[in-house]
Specification:
The protein contains four helices and seven strands. It is of the alpha/beta class. It has one domain. Strands 1, 2, 3, 4, 5, 6 and 7 form a seven-stranded mixed β-sheet that branches. The radius of gyration is 19 Å and the shape is globular. The termini are far apart. This is WW domain-containing protein.
């Protein structure tokens, strides 16, 4: 980009991605339900398995399909499917979040309370994919100029058509991370109906539906 505006280094470990590009349903280790032994007094009588600890502000959420993801309750809010119970993952994720926030500040980009950052580290923690969504405007966005071809987003005939594609990405994000409170979501009745119809259609694709309709 021109004018001396800072950019992410093209060889950088941070890479733009989209919510639809997630590998959630491509993973070999898909969530499988099974029967468990419930030992005497488990989770009651003060008995529970050895506790695991998360960094400050982080909490665990359970997707209706059974997947675990984690949320940092901050501004901006951060979500990830990386195992935040692992120390090495905690350190790397914290570094990447700092880098994204510092980069936004260097460009005078305000990441408001309605913005949510998604970080998706590689298995070897060598790089991290990211995207942001704004629950107020309901679009997915990035901190640097990218093309729809780079992101794998369909071609568009106009800006209005492109916005529709970015909103589709937004709703895919909501489907992937539905179990925490999102700031700035304000659905009208007709919009809520559209979401429920989309969720119902999803039950025909996946074994476990994100929303039971």
């Amino acid at each position: 980009m021109s004018g001396g505006t800072p950019e992410f280094d093209k060889t950088h470990s941070l890479r733009p991605t989209t919510s639809i590009a997630t590998t959630r349903y491509d993973k070999v280790d898909k969530v499988v339900t099974r029967h468990h032994i419930v030992s005497i007094g488990l989770f009651g009588l003060g008995q529970s398995p050895n506790p695991l600890y998360l960094p400050p502000l982080w909490s665990e959420c359970i997707h209706p399909e059974g997947n675990v993801y984690f949320v940092r309750n901050s501004q901006p809010k951060v979500v990830t499917e990386a195992n935040m119970y692992a120390e090495v993952v905690q350190e790397k994720v914290a570094q990447w979040i700092d880098e994204i926030e510092n980069f936004a500040a260097s460009r005078a980009i305000c990441l408001s309370e309605t913005v949510e950052l998604t970080v998706d580290p590689s298995d070897d923690l060598e790089y991290c994919k990211y995207y942001l969504v704004d629950h107020s405007s309901r679009v997915e966005f990035w901190l640097d100029e990218v093309t729809t071809e780079e992101l794998g987003i369909r071609t568009a005939v106009s800006e209005a058509h492109l916005r529709q594609a970015l909103e589709e990405q937004y709703w895919s994000h909501v489907e992937h991370f539905p179990s925490h409170e999102a700031t700035g979501v304000d659905l009208h009745t007709d919009e809520l109906l559209d979401v429920l119809l989309h969720a119902r259609a999803g039950t025909k694709i996946h074994t476990f539906a994100s929303i039971l309709v």
